[in-house]
């Protein structure tokens, strides 16, 4: 179980300000979505939270320790991240990628232990990817690769999970199935999940909290219920958006 | 519950054992075949110090030192190739193709022409390799990403630049030195033992890269991914850079710029044992050693009594393989 505290975070990409004096408190079992227009800096924010990019100012701490100060290994034991881009070069098999994902927990001198292999086997079965993991990932489809990468996040087994467009490349059915199954499991395990989402409807459907990057460093965050309004989303996407309720679902439709 | 992923340890032992047998067979062939063919018995007797004078001289003074040098050069180049392929994330990376050997050779030639003492030559070789690699890294880097074609082009242009410098140095050097220099530049193994420092560098590089094998596996997944799994990639990249340069220097000082071993062998081994560096590194080094021992033997017998530079043989093998790889990469949309 972890607590993530973001305080006074300022991030610039070139001349664009992604966020300015951003304060957030992420609690165990919460699912967050980051939404915003293209180029608003969603991915940059996620990389900064992962400790892979230094912010201009401010700090991010997990259970009181600053992610940019702890050792790379300690950080990888606490935060995992799913990247947006697929790696096209890879000739590794899914199984090798999953074994690599145990790296933060493997001692250099003892190597991969039985217990690591057991975790990989368990996740492979839970994620229903048995038929995918013995082939080189280079020959898999984008959606199949995505499922392997999501499994790798589960294998890394961290308290904080960052996902950059997790359902990118997935079929509609898998988008709903995979996301709800994974998020339910991670909620139950009291993990903190933060996803960058492109789709406003998936974001509102699956997350407890929203973080909207409005551009020019302005941001808006809070419980999904209070943030997900026609007014906020229209301003966020710079396009008129209407809300409809049907079949117990809320949908936002651009006009 | 179905268990996925193959069991590596049984396969690992079998492959490594097979490759060790291959190296022993290559050594035996190399000691018995040549301008004078010896029987296995004669060669074995000479090795144990009991053979007749001619066999002893041929085996101990000529063939054994050269075969051992071939083993060291072949394994050094194969490991350098594996390391550069991880560093540059490109399966076509090789110390010869990308100009690393060329840079090393230029500095060695300059040191030789300047009449520098023998002990300076290895330092010059290492410095040349390092300079060439750093130049490649700086010039080929575009927006933080290694674009494959840009990398290859930059490396090939660097290599031809070093080639031009070599031509210049040759044309201003004294006539009596040119024949020897030319042969060395074509990749020529002298009948000298590899020497302690070279064997030491290769063994140390082997040990270190086996210790770091899992880290190399991670780096092969990309820099950002490796960092997110807790790897300090900057340090690892620096170690690879220094290691690959030292290994290239070992090969260049022993045999001149021998080409394509670092390209062909890791590729073949990846097909045979997969991309896991814990297995890829030792098997590539053994196979590289065997290939160079056999190439050296072929260089002696193919045009006997004339002796060909071993680099000619490896190029005959390497060029078609390189083109094939490039072709295969193009049809899959990536080199």
- CATH superfamily placement of chain A: P-loop containing nucleotide triphosphate hydrolases
Task: Report the span from N to C terminus of chain B.
Answer: 38 Å
Identify the strand order in the major beta sheet of chain A: 6-7-8-3-9-10
Percent range for helical residues of chain B?
Answer: over 70%
Radius of gyration of chain B: 20 Å
Q: What structural class should be given to the helix and strand makeup of chain B?
A: mainly alpha
Q: Distance between the terminal alpha carbons of chain A, to the nearest Å?
A: 42 Å
CATH architecture of chain B: Orthogonal Bundle
The topology string of helices and strands of chain B comes to HHHHHHHHHHHHHH
Helix content of chain A: 25-40%
Low-confidence stretches of chain A: none
Q: What is the percentage of strand-forming residues of chain A?
A: 25-35%
Give the overall form of chain B: globular
Q: Enumerate the spans of chain B where pLDDT stays under 50 for 5 or more consecutive residues.
A: 330-335
Domain count of chain A, please report it: 1
């Amino acid at each position: 179980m972890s607590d993530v505290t973001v305080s006074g975070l300022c991030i610039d990409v070139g001349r664009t300000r992604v966020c300015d004096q951003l304060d957030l408190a992420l609690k165990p079992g919460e699912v967050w979505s980051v939404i915003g227009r293209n180029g608003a800096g969603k991915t940059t924010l996620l990389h900064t939270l992962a400790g892979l990019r230094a912010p201009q100012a401010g700090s991010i701490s997990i259970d009181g320790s600053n992610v940019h100060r702890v050792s790379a290994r300690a950080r990888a034991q606490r935060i995992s991240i799913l990247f947006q881009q697929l790696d096209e070069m890879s000739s590794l098999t899914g199984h090798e990628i999953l074994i690599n994902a145990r790296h933060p927990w493997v001692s250099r001198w003892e190597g991969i232990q039985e217990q690591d292999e057991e975790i990989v086997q368990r996740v492979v079965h839970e994620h229903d990817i048995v038929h995918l993991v013995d082939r080189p990932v280079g020959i898999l489809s984008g959606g199949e690769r995505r499922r392997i990468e999501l499994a790798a996040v589960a294998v890394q087994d961290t308290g904080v999970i960052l996902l950059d467009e997790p359902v990118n490349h997935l079929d509609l059915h898998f988008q709903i199935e995979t996301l709800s199954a994974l998020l339910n499991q991670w909620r139950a395990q009291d993990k903190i999940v933060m996803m960058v989402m492109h789709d406003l409807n998936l974001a509102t459907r699956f997350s407890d909290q929203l973080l909207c990057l409005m551009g020019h460093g302005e941001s808006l965050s809070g419980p999904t219920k209070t943030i997900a309004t026609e007014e906020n989303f229209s301003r966020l996407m710079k396009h008129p958006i209407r809300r409809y309720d049907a079949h117990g679902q809320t949908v936002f439709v651009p006009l | 519950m179905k268990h996925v992923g193959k069991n590596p340890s049984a396969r690992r032992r079998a492959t490594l054992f097979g490759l060790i047998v291959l190296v022993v067979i290559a050594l035996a062939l190399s000691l018995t075949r040549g301008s004078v063919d010896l029987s296995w018995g004669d060669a074995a007797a000479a090795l144990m110090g009991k053979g007749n004078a001619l066999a002893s001289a041929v085996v101990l003074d000529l063939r054994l030192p050269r075969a051992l040098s071939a083993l060291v050069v072949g394994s050094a180049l194969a490991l350098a190739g594996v390391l550069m392929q991880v560093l540059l994330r490109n399966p076509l990376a090789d110390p010869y193709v990308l100009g690393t050997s060329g840079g090393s050779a230029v500095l060695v030639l300059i040191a030789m022409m300047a009449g520098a003492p023998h002990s300076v030559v290895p330092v010059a070789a290492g410095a040349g390799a390092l300079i060439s690699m750093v130049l490649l890294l700086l010039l080929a880097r575009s927006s933080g990403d290694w674009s494959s074609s840009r990398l290859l082009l930059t490396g090939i242009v660097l290599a031809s630049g070093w080639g031009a410098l070599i031509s210049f140095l040759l044309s201003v050097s004294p006539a009596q030195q040119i024949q020897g220099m030319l042969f060395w530049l074509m990749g020529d193994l002298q009948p000298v033992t590899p020497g302690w420092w070279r064997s030491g560098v290769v063994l140390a590089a082997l040990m270190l890269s086996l210790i770091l094998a899992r880290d190399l596996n991670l780096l092969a997944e990309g820099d950002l991914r490796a960092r997110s799994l807790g790897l300090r990639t900057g340090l690892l990249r620096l170690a690879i850079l220094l290691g690959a340069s030292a290994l290239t220097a070992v090969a260049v000082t022993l045999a001149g710029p021998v080409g394509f071993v670092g390209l062909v062998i890791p590729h073949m081994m990846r097909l045979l044992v997969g991309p896991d560096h814990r297995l890829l590194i030792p098997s590539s080094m053994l196979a590289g050693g065997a290939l160079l021992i056999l190439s050296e033997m072929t260089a002696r017998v193919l045009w006997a009594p004339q002796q060909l530079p071993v680099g000619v043989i490896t190029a005959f093998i390497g060029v078609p393989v390189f083109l094939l790889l490039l072709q295969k990469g193009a049809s899959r949309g990536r080199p």
